[in-house]
Write a structure and sequence with these properties.
By secondary structure, the chain is an alpha+beta fold. It contains 6 helices and 16 strands. β7 and β8 form a beta hairpin. α1 runs parallel beside α4 and α2 crosses α3.
Length: about 350
């Protein structure tokens, strides 16, 4: 059985994040058999101009526009999934851009034409179909004037009736999820999936969307059901210090990541972050992953995000309670003392363990 792959790339030209890669460093994460992401000029948060008032920064989010993808197509399903993922966290939607579509399709064609040794996220000058070394360059070459971008790649081969699950697969990781929930992203281009080629998703921005200074988003969302049981395969490996990135390790030694995010320009300080099975008093044994703790390559994470990943898979059809205590500091919060966060929420798992 073929395993689904996801890949991430992030490029920074102001702020860029690409799933299937990182930033200026070119390293790629891969999810539940995801294709490794690569970051070219990783996306960094945009810091607003400090204000002398105590009023938190106001939000400036775009509205969703109707895409032109064919109904039921892998592109349409993927975009729907991506925006649903962003919406439940209070993030602005990303809208289809025809030029970004061209960039994604160009890169898919390049990888197909150069199967032997072709990188999921990078292109080599002189190779057949070359349009740009990284996702940011390819978006600009295709006519989308991106100032930041990210690229994620995934197969839905294990879900023949729902290609949109490629996005679920990407969201079921640390680095790829972080890429897709970048707050500033505005436009997306998608190359359709087929049996031999994964779904290529290029997401970029010109003028970034901005969340309110007191923004706090969580995933899985409050009262979400059907949550997966374990982390998908991903490259780079968020757990490299303790174990190899194998399907067996993910199935038995990880849970689905639980994350909390503050406004993009802030720094998130964690005091306590726990997940507890309903009816139990002791929280699960888990790993805290932040930009500060992700020492392998912290360009994949920004300072406003914290992940908690259990050291064993979640139980099927079980309710879990989450509590986060901490603070977000930065001018956007409107307070020199920062934004105090004490947030509790719940979610319920399904019975799905990808590839297990």
């Amino acid at each position: 059985m073929r395993v689904s792959k996801v890949s991430l790339v992030a490029t920074l030209a102001a702020i860029v994040l690409s799933g299937c890669g990182g930033g200026s460093g070119d390293k790629s994460p891969v999810a539940s058999n995801p294709i490794a992401p690569v970051v070219t000029n990783p996306i960094e948060p945009v810091a607003p101009t400090p204000t002398p008032t105590l009023t938190p920064q106001a939000a400036s989010l775009q509205t969703a526009a109707a895409p032109t993808y064919a109904a039921g197509s892998s592109e349409a399903k993927a975009l729907q999934k991506l925006n649903a993922f962003r919406t439940v966290q209070g993030l602005g939607p990303v809208n289809q851009n025809a030029n970004a579509d061209i960039a994604a399709k160009n890169h898919a064609a390049y990888v197909t034409a150069n199967q032997s040794g072709a990188s999921p996220h990078e292109e080599v000058v002189g190779k057949p179909g070359f349009t740009g070394v990284d996702v940011l360059s390819r978006l600009i070459a295709a006519g989308y004037p991106a100032t930041g971008a990210t690229e994620v790649i995934a197969f839905s081969i294990m879900f023949p009736n729902d290609e949109g699950n490629a996005i679920d697969n990407l969201a079921n990781t640390v680095y790829h999820r972080a890429a897709m929930m970048n707050q500033g992203l505005t436009a997306v281009g998608i190359a359709p999936e087929n049996p031999e080629s994964p779904l290529y998703v290029n997401i970029g921005r010109t003028t970034p969307q901005i969340n309110a200074g007191d923004y706090v988003g969580v995933y899985p969302a409050n009262n979400q059901t059907g949550v997966w049981l374990s982390h998908s395969v991903e490259s780079p490996n968020p757990f490299y210090q303790e174990m190899e990135m194998t399907q067996e390790n993910m199935c038995t030694k990880t849970s689905t990541p639980v994350s909390l995010t503050s406004e993009a320009s802030t720094i998130l300080n964690v005091t306590s972050f726990t997940v507890t099975e309903e009816g139990q008093t002791a929280p699960l044994d888990a790993r805290l992953i932040t930009k500060a703790t992700s020492t392998q390559d912290n360009t994949y994470l920004t300072p406003n995000v914290a992940f908690l990943v259990g050291k064993a898979s979640f139980k099927p059809n079980t309710k879990y309670n989450v509590r986060f205590i901490g603070k977000a500091t930065g001018a956007a919060t409107g307070s020199a003392a920062g934004l105090a966060i004490d947030k509790s929420w719940t979610f319920t798992t399904g019975a799905f363990k990808r590839g297990c």
